[in-house]
Design goal:
It is a single chain. The chain folds into two domains: about 240 residues, P-loop containing nucleotide triphosphate hydrolases (Rossmann fold, 3-Layer(aba) Sandwich), CATH 3.40.50.300; about 240 residues, Rossmann fold, CATH 3.40.50. It contains 17 helices and 22 strands. The chain is globular and about 70 Å long. It starts with a strand and ends in a 6-residue tail after the last helix.
Length: about 500
């Protein structure tokens, strides 16, 4: 790590209405350093990143970039200074190809026209140099969430940045893809690029960080140098939250009943084998699998989002096979989708409107009593501990963990028999994860059943009563009891598990 500082900020302050987001925050970033920034949702990380990106103005403080001093930044300044940010939220252009998104605005033309053959070739070579395998001619909107994230990272790297900001770059990644990202980050840092790396995965932080700065309630708690000291991950978690916390949740034991839900003969394409499984009352059934294994597609087919080649769904012995989400909802089958911000929430609508949206038929008559709507919504806000200034707050302004809770509140308001949750805790902090786990545990203790799709091993191991491992759109192995281990799940990923 070089002694040269690419960025140094001193005593940054930023307040929004009623909230002090950053308080006398100081931070520095050396050339070629990977400096990780951690903290709970709402700790001030996103505010700091938006200040560095030029999106918002600090109330006070100094930002030094190289030898230049700024009171505030604009996007044009950050671009000129070689600062590129890859945000957790937001997207590129869905309707154009991977190659076009990577080079958008910097295409090389031949005789005033863009050569798509050259564009695709350059994109393929660039991705190959970074060990990323995505078709350059694939449309961005058709990519999985992890591949979309890779394209966002590639687009930032194409500008040859001095400073790269990565905000939760691996939130939706599996183990293999996380390793690709961490190797990539280490590779570019060795070339002198400075990286600000934000993640809630503490094991990932320990793998990639040179230094770690902990934020809590807008204030810097401490900066740790991983090259000079041995850091206990529990210490980092404690500093983030301000109290002792278990890194791995221990689910309370509860009674699991008889079979209540069954999938028979499900095939998503004519070449795959039939998928058969049962879910018991009060059970959490984990669906594990690498990116592209078919785990999410299976969940979406069960919920009626995607078409099935064949297969039937049963609830309490009665066939309910939904052909649309509307039919699924009619049977009390609900789904918390992987990309909750796009297809799980109306981001610019209020908390109360999001909660009641799926259950408007609960209100009698064509006119909704707004006081009654607010009263019913508040019940779930209180029950789930959703932190919001008012019920009329737009959901887009909530933290990640509270957005997750609003999605759960929506389905609780609607009424759940079977709940499918896809990546229920990605992109949220340790404390918020535990709160989500407690909500899910409470649901199954009351007899509800959950099918949980997850990339996180500790989550699958801690929460699942049984785990089905998916590989190539088929069941690779079924794990129960003390056989639910990281080793056995990984064997299932490779096709070596026991069915």
């Amino acid at each position: 790590m070089s002694d040269i500082k690419n960025i140094e900020v001193k005593n940054l302050n930023k307040s929004f209405i009623g909230v002090r987001a950053l308080i006398d925050f100081s931070f520095d970033l050396h050339k070629g350093e990977i400096h990780c920034l951690i903290g709970e949702n709402g700790a001030g990380k996103s505010t700091f990143i938006k200040i560095l990106s030029g999106a918002i103005t600090p109330d006070s403080g100094i930002i030094n970039i190289g030898k230049k001093k700024y009171n505030r930044l604009f996007p044009a300044i950050t671009k000129n200074e070689g600062i590129e940010a890859v945000h957790q939220e937001g997207t590129l252009v869905p309707q154009i190809t991977v190659a076009e998104n990577i080079f958008l605005g910097s295409e090389k033309s031949e005789k005033m026209f863009v050569s798509y053959r050259r564009l695709f070739r350059d994109a393929a070579e660039f991705m190959e140099s970074l060990n990323i395998n995505i078709r350059p001619d694939e449309f961005y909107e058709n990519l999985s969430l992890p591949d979309q994230q890779f394209v966002k990272i590639l687009r930032a790297l194409i500008f040859d940045p001095r400073v790269l900001i990565l905000d939760e770059p691996t939130a939706v990644f599996n183990i293999n893809d996380i390793k690709i990202v961490t190797k990539l980050v280490k590779k570019i840092s060795k070339k002198g690029v400075s990286v600000i790396y934000i993640s809630h995965h503490l094991e990932e932080i320990a793998e990639v960080a040179d230094r770690v700065t902990v934020l809590r309630d807008g204030r810097k708690v401490k900066t740790h140098n991983f090259k000079e000291e041995s850091i206990d991950l529990n210490l980092l978690a404690n500093e983030m939250i301000g109290r002792p916390v278990e890194l791995f949740y221990k689910k309370k034991k509860h009674k699991v009943g008889d079979v209540i839900f069954e999938v028979r003969g499900l095939k998503l394409n004519p070449k795959s084998k039939e998928i058969n499984f049962k879910v018991r009352e009060g059970e959490i059934l984990g669906l594990a699998g690498l990116k592209g294994s078919g785990r999410t597609e299976i969940a979406r087919a069960i919920f009626g989002v995607d078409k099935k080649y064949q297969g039937k769904i049963f609830y309490k012995g009665k066939e309910i096979t939904p052909n649309s989400p509307g039919e699924a909802l009619g049977e009390g089958l609900c789904m918390m989708t992987e990309n909750k911000q796009i297809d799980g929430l109306c981001m610019n609508a209020s908390v109360v409107k999001n909660i009641t949206l799926a259950g408007l038929d609960r209100f009698k008559g064509p006119i909704i009593n707004l006081k009654e709507e607010a009263r019913l919504a508040k019940k779930f806000v209180d029950q789930l501990g959703i932190k919001t200034p008012t019920l009329n707050q737009e959901v887009i302004n909530l933290s990640g963990g509270n957005k997750q809770k609003v999605v759960l509140a929506k389905w609780l308001f609607r009424g759940i028999n079977i709940l499918i949750v896809d990546e229920p805790t990605h992109g949220i902090d340790v404390n918020s994860k535990i709160e989500i786990y407690e909500i899910l545990t409470d649901l199954v203790s009351k007899g509800k059943s959950i099918i949980m799709v997850s990339s996180e091993m500790p989550e699958l191991i801690a929460m699942s009563d049984n785990v089905i491992v998916i590989k190539d759109y088929e069941i690779s192995s079924v794990l129960s009891g003390n056989r639910i281990t990281e080793e056995n799940i990984l064997l299932g990923f490779m096709g070596g598990g026991n069915g």
